[in-house]
Structures are given as C-alpha cells and as structure tokens.
TrEMBL record:
<keyword id="KW-0560">Oxidoreductase</keyword>
<protein>
    <submittedName>
        <fullName>3-oxoacyl-[acyl-carrier protein] reductase</fullName>
    </submittedName>
</protein>
<dbReference type="GO" id="GO:0016491">
    <property type="term" value="F:oxidoreductase activity"/>
</dbReference>
<dbReference type="Pfam" id="PF13561">
    <property type="entry name" value="adh_short_C2"/>
</dbReference>
<comment type="similarity">
    <text>Belongs to the short-chain dehydrogenases/reductases (SDR) family.</text>
</comment>
<dbReference type="InterPro" id="IPR002347">
    <property type="entry name" value="SDR_fam"/>
</dbReference>
<dbReference type="InterPro" id="IPR050259">
    <property type="entry name" value="SDR"/>
</dbReference>
<dbReference type="InterPro" id="IPR036291">
    <property type="entry name" value="NAD(P)-bd_dom_sf"/>
</dbReference>
Length: 252
C-alpha cells in the first residue's frame, strides 16, 4: 500500500450478497473492512468470521445509514477501531418496491427513492470532511442497470431511485476530486443473490439467455470492479459509471 498505509474501507449493507462479496474482496487485498448491517447481525458476524479465518481483518457495525445519526455512528465506530476512513462503498439497499407506473402508490414510490438516496447521502456526508482532511478518499455507489431504462414493468421506483443516485454521485465526484476524494458508480446487471431467491426459476433462466456472457453476475464480479474503484490506481477516475452486466448493453 502507498506509504505503507493499510487502507480502511466501510461497506454499507455488507452482511450478505453483493456487499459481502465486496467486503471479502477488499479484505483479501489487505484492507481493514467495516461491515455495516441494519438487521442481519448474525450474517454480518459470519462475514467477519469468514474474513478473519482467511487472514483478513474486519469488524461488524450495526447502524441505520438512512439517517444522520446512524451514519455518524458508523463512521465514529470505524475511526475508533482503525483511526481513519479511506473508502466508502454505498451498497445498502432497500426493497424493490414493485409496482407499475399506473398502480404503484406515491407513498411506496417516494419511500423507495427517499430511502435509497438517504442511504448514500448520510454516509457520504459523514466521511466527507475526514477524507478531505486526509487529501484521499474513494467513494463507490452501487446503482443498477435498471436505471438505463425499462427492464420490467414492476421496477419503476427502483429505476428512478438508482437514476437519482447516479446524479448525486456525479455531483459528489465533481466536488470531491479537487481534494483527492474521487467518487464513481458501479452498476450491476442481473446478479445472483439471496434477494432474487423468490424469483421464478423460468424467469431467471429466460433473463440469463439474453445476456451475451451466458450467465448472471456473481457478487464476486461486481466486487472486482468496486475493488478497482477503491484502489490507489483509481485516483484519476471520477464521476464514471461502469456497468457489470455481461455485455447486456450490446443487446439494447
């Protein structure tokens, strides 16, 4: 690591799925990782145990990052444990809030958009001054390919929320870059996680057939891109949105 600094990475919503894959990837390269969770304490502790068993270093911190108090508590716990914050991965997600344009209630739609943005806004604000003072920071936001356009009639709230998140990330990138704080976006396509456990097998198989790579992404595929954006080498890349979709864009 540069100047022999062991980087410290905070990953929100990291107890399982993509978040856990990211945490394990960053720990494997030597980062000290903070696994944030909201309700999945047992799963978060299992993730910490797996990282520790593999020779890495991690702690689990429960906090609701959708509000200022939770985000500040998460960062305070990180600084207490490791003394710094070098990377923030905003992965915490909320439910898809399924419903079509004609049927989804405003309350459901607005709650999805609000929660999605709050889970990025508050952690970003909580680390912002720390990273500026260090003259170094990496922030990665997890979006979704649904933000590019209709991929299903029932995910309009999810798509709108992720589109707004991308806009927010670009403003963060513009303001942070002069101070060495670079922000980027990773946009996964269909990814095999517990969140899709209830999807009908025939639907999943049909979707996979439309992917040039011939399969859905695994959390490790997404984690690889996040690992790059949180690395030393990514210091000159800011406000970029990278798709991890197996080539699906080529079919649109």
């Amino acid at each position: 690591m540069e100047d022999q600094v062991r980087r410290v990475a905070v990953v929100t919503g990291a107890a399982r799925g993509i978040g856990r894959g990211i945490a394990e990837r960053l720990a494997a390269r030597g980062d000290r990782v903070v696994i944030n969770y909201l309700t999945s304490k047992e799963a978060a502790e299992e993730a910490v145990a797996a990282i520790t068993a593999a020779g890495g270093e991690a702690i689990a911190v429960g906090a609701d990052v959708r509000n200022e108090e939770g985000a500040q508590a998460l960062v305070a716990a990180t600084v207490e444990a490791y003394g710094r914050v070098d990377a923030l991965v905003c992965n915490a997600n909320v439910g898809l809030a399924q419903g079509s344009v004609a049927e989804i209630p405003w309350e459901t739609f607005s709650a999805k958009v609000n929660d999605e943005l709050a889970a990025a806004f508050h952690p970003t604000r909580a680390v912002w001054q720390l990273m500026k003072d260090q003259g170094y920071g990496r922030i990665v936001y997890l979006a979704a390919e649904a933000s590019k356009g209709p991929v299903g009639a029932e995910v309009v709230a999810h798509a709108a929320a992720k589109s707004a998140l991308i806009s927010y990330a670009k403003f963060a990138a513009r303001e942070g870059a002069p101070n060495g704080v670079v922000a980027n976006v990773v946009s996964p396509g269909l990814t095999r996680t517990d969140a899709l456990g209830e999807a009908p097998p025939d639907w999943f198989a049909a979707f996979e057939k439309r992917i040039p790579a011939g399969r859905a992404a695994e959390p490790e595929d997404v984690a690889a891109m996040v690992a790059f954006f949180t690395s030393e080498e990514a210091g000159y890349i800011a406000g970029t949105v990278v798709s991890v979709n197996g080539g699906s864009d080529m079919t649109r």
